[in-house]
Amino acid sequence: MYELLLYAAVGAAIMRSAWLLIGLVRVIPVHLRARTRRWGLAEVLAFVELPVFLGLTCLLVLQLVPVPAPGSAAFLGAALGAALALAGLFVSLWAIATTVRRRVILDAGHFVKEDHPLVTTGAYGFVRNPMYLGIILIWFGLGVAFQNAILLLVSAAYVVPVMWFYIRAEERMMSSEFGAQFEEYARRVGRLLPRLRRRAV
Fold first, then answer.
1. 30: containing domain
2. Contact present, 100 and 19 (Cβ < 8 Å)
3. Structurally, how many domains does the chain consist of?
4. Which residues, other chains included, contact 97 with Cβ-Cβ below 8 Å and sequence gap of 6+?
5. CATH of the domain at 12
6. Which stretches does DSSP call E strand in 45-187?
7. Does residue 178 belong to any structural domain of this protein?
8. Could you tell me the pLDDT band of residue 135, with boundaries at 50, 70 and 90?
9. Is the pTM of this model over 0.85?
10. Angle at the Cα of 196 from the Cα atoms of 195 and 198, rounded to 5 degrees
């Protein structure tokens, strides 16, 4: 059971790496045709996370990340970590499914196409940035599952601040592009955490 939990966490990393590679190939031509693009410090810092995560996934698949010795603490860590990673995977796949139904390639990202709608339903009715929430949950899930101080440090000191910086830059762009429609959406739906009580419009 302990090993199955670790495999589940690694499986979430493999799935994320797969959609990363597919998404990069699909998004390049869309980015070139976008009406609005951003490429600054926030984008560069966030882009670095992609090869780092792909490298981490390779290490996990090759079993080069140390595995804690079996025990009650290791089992609890593996269970919690697997739950976090799978939750991150679920939220991310939900976001992809939502955008596919709206015929949008993943998220607006830091570009907006000519015919790009503001997606506010499905996963985007849960939180405004479900993909980034999924990324954060997967990183922390892997760190907790393997009880790896380096992974937890990278998650807390790099992934979370960079994603937050990236989200703020993206939301400024979305506000500029969609105006009052985005502002109303932002009042109703939380950035990374769902709002138990939605604000009045």
1. 2-188
2. no
3. 1
4. 122, 123
5. 1.20.120.1630
6. 111-112
7. yes
8. very high
9. yes
10. 65
